Amino acid sequence: MKEETFFKNIDVLSELKLRFGYGETGQQDGIGNYTYLPVYNVANSQAQYQFGTTFYDLYRPDGYNPNLKWEQTATTNLGLDFGFFNGRITGAVDVYLKKTTDLLSVVDQPAGTNFSNKILANIGNMENRGIEITLNTQPVKNNDLVWDFGINATFNKNEITKLTFTNDPTFPGNLIGGIAGGVGSTIQIHSVGYPKSSFYVYKQVYDAAGKPIENLFEDLNRDGLINVNDLYRYKAPDPDVFLGASSSVSWKNWSAGFLLRANLGNYMYNNRFSNTGVMRNIIDPLGFLANGSRNLLETNFTGNGDKYLLSDYYVENASFMRMDNINVGYNAGSIISKNTNLRIGFNVQNVFTITKYKGLDPEVSGGIDNNFYPRPRNFVLNLNLDF
């Protein structure tokens, strides 16, 4: 577009391009070998057949789905690339829509229609839409000093649009996200109209001092009972906004740089607090004395029952800003002969993290934090001698 007549005479404008793209990709993760074929496998020891005094292994058919196929994502993108002052300022703005279809999920089978009561099937659809902004600048450039600085931001909205073969408004969704502390307890759900892996929790009731009251939750449907019908979808682990910043500076033989990023709007279920921050975990029912989380000092929960595990109290805002890397280098030049070159570098990884999240790490894949140890901070000294 820079070459068009109405832009050509704008001297400060060095680049202007309009892009449109469309593409489809597929992925087969989650599909087991031969699960689309009728096959026989050796049964377990509980299904052996006795003939005389000998027990024989049997072969039995597995459940299968002949219509299994890859999940598919169609991406539509509209972008604008720009540059000013002979490339000293460049950037891009992209608007995108990603539609993922044929998502894999385990579905129930009517009795007598398959060799298993559950099979893997392509039934789900999901959408991601948003905008990405990138800006790169070179504030200083001369013979001795060059400084490059860049920032980026992504705003994303995720929503599940289909989960069943036919529209069923009464279907709450697929429960996922197993947690420690209860037998078979889950804390997340995939539901139509909500972000994937939304937390599925009870609404906690607090006392006058702002402390949570153990096993006391709001009766959301006003039926006089507190049960699974009072669970509600609250927040999700994926961020709404991704931010990043990077910088590199070179001055004569010196160089330095950093990488900084932030996530906003991501939430985390603190399973360390819910599992160990109760009296039952410190004074074990079997008589053992164990360690507990400091969260017990805030809640005074005994750990009786299991509803407290599903409290939205444990779903925390895990927005954070993290300095991933900072580095300094020096090129010492030739020190032994004219054909040698010594470079010295020092960098720190995982420099610092700013967050209100009370757990050890606000960035845990899946949104369930069971970490015992924080991420390490690494200090690295590099000495490179080239001959």
Task: Explain what this protein looks like in three dimensions.
It contains four helices and 23 strands. With 387 residues, it is mostly beta strands. The strands form six sheets. It has a ten-stranded antiparallel β-sheet with strand order 1-6-7-8-9-16-17-20-21-23, with no helix packed on it. Strands 10-11-12-15 form a four-stranded antiparallel β-sheet, with no helix packed on it. It has a three-stranded mixed β-sheet with strand order 19-18-22.
Structural class: mainly beta
Low-confidence stretches: none
Whole-number average pLDDT? 92
Topology, number of strands: 23
Sheet having the most strands: 10 strands, antiparallel
Strand order across the largest sheet = 1-6-7-8-9-16-17-20-21-23
Q: What amount of the residues lies in strands? A: over 45%
Estimate the global geometry from the Cα principal axes: globular
Q: Helix and strand succession?
A: HEEEEEEEEEEEEEEEEEEHHHEEEEE
Count structural domains: 1
Radius of gyration over all CA atoms, rounded:
28 Å
**Count of runs of 4 or more consecutive helical residues:** 4
Q: How far do the termini sit from each other?
A: 48 Å
Residue share in helix: under 10%
Secondary-structure blueprint:
Layout: H1 5-8, E1 13-27, E2 40-42, E3 49-51, E4 54-56, E5 59-61, E6 71-84, E7 89-108, E8 118-141, E9 145-162, E10 174-178, E11 186-190, E12 198-201, E13 204-206, E14 212-217, E15 232-234, E16 241-251, E17 254-264, E18 267-270, H2 271-276, H3 279-282, H4 296-299, E19 315-317, E20 320-333, E21 341-355, E22 368-369, E23 378-386
Parallel strand pairs: 18-22
Antiparallel strand pairs: 1-6, 2-5, 3-4, 6-7, 7-8, 8-9, 9-16, 10-11, 11-12, 12-15, 13-14, 16-17, 17-20, 18-19, 20-21, 21-23
